[in-house]
Amino acid sequence: MSKILVTGGAGYIGSHTCVELLEAGYEIVIVDNFSNSKPEALKRIKQITGKDFDFYQVDILDREALGKVFDEHGDICAVIHFAGLKAVGESVAKPVEYYHNNITGTLMLIEEMRAHGVKKIVFSSSATVYGVDNTVPYVETMPTNTATNPYGYTKVMIEQILKDVYVSDNEWSISLLRYFNPIGAHSSGLIGEDPNGIPNNLFPYIQQVAVGRREHLNVFGDDYDTPDGTGVRDYIHVVDLAKGHLCAVKYVLENKGVEAVNLGTGNGSSVLDILHAFEKACGKELPYKITDRRAGDIAWCYADASKAKKLFGWQAQYNVDDMCRDGWKFIQQNPNGL
Ligand code: NAD
Ligand code: UD1
Questions:
Q1: Whose CA is nearest to atom 23 of ligand 2?
Q2: pLDDT tens digit string along 132-141?
Q3: Which fold has domain 3-184+235-265+305-317?
Q4: Which of 80, 102, 227, 316 is the most buried (most CB within 10 A)?
Q5: What is the distance in A from the centroid of ligand 1 to the CA of 213?
């Protein structure tokens, strides 16, 4: 009982998790439509691990194609569900596309899982579900119904759907993993974050400044109520995050029920902390300008990470310097992405 279906496995977090799954001895099957990733990522997973796996270029909205994957792999015992669209700004401009892809896609997946008797799922949720009304550190028991954008609402709603699925059938085992800010790359430098177009997120933007693809970083506001005035986030090494999925898979395989779990370090770093840590890693100064705040941003976001430790025996191992070292290695080796 060790074959895991990974949706969105060619993506940033998915590819790192597939490496950890293969290295831990799991068999995997990946489904991805490459809407935000490239086939090269799959080659790199094989290169790092020396292991092979089946891949299907399938859109999870295509229920029939998804069903065939389950038919061909009758021994799938659990699903890790990464597939989804994730750009906050784009979700405001294209709410229908976001709700359809993320929510309808998840419903199709749940239906096919049910049809094939697979009732164990690890879902990629986000700290975004804590919205703007809660105060840090965020604890899993806080209310999570006040997202600030359609992307965030897809996470809130999918969490609710999965909770209701469990209520309807107590045979299910569901892990709702609320990620904080994953950054960095695999230590090989072979896989990492490779966004299309201008990066929305801080770390890939800094990476591109470091290799000269962007002139300078825009720091979105230095007048927040934080130690240096810039926004504070709980950055977590993507490999730590990937290892958290191994713990979650083991947990859902051995238990029933539904659990929301934060995956963060419990520590906050400011925008300038990350910039300076990256400067240390790459050995040069990186130009930046202070600009206006970005709409929808909050001052503070960090996890209470104690539940993951208690439930999974998991805690993050890497610090911000490790994240920057590995992120620098990836972008040096792949200055124009994968
Ligand atoms: P990503 O875009 O790199 O990976 C998502 C993958 O899913 C991509 O390879 C994409 O091609 C695929 N995909 C999207 N829609 C699909 C569909 N309909 N059918 C098949 N494949 C599809 O993103 P990521 O950073 O690896 O994030 C993975 C998951 O974690 C997402 O659900 C995201 O919302 C969530 N998450 C990410 C972050 C973050 O900071 N990266 C934070 C919180 C939550
Ligand atoms: C964002 C999303 C969140 C999503 C996560 C991962 C918003 C409001 N939140 O989180 O829902 O789950 O990405 O995709 O978009 N910053 C700069 N300059 C930049 C980019 C960012 O100063 O060019 C600052 C931001 O103001 C913030 C910090 O860096 O203080 C981190 O930003 P980012 O990497 O975009 O992540 P979040 O906003 O935390």
A1: 202
A2: 999 999 999 9
A3: Rossmann fold (3.40.50)
A4: 80
A5: 24
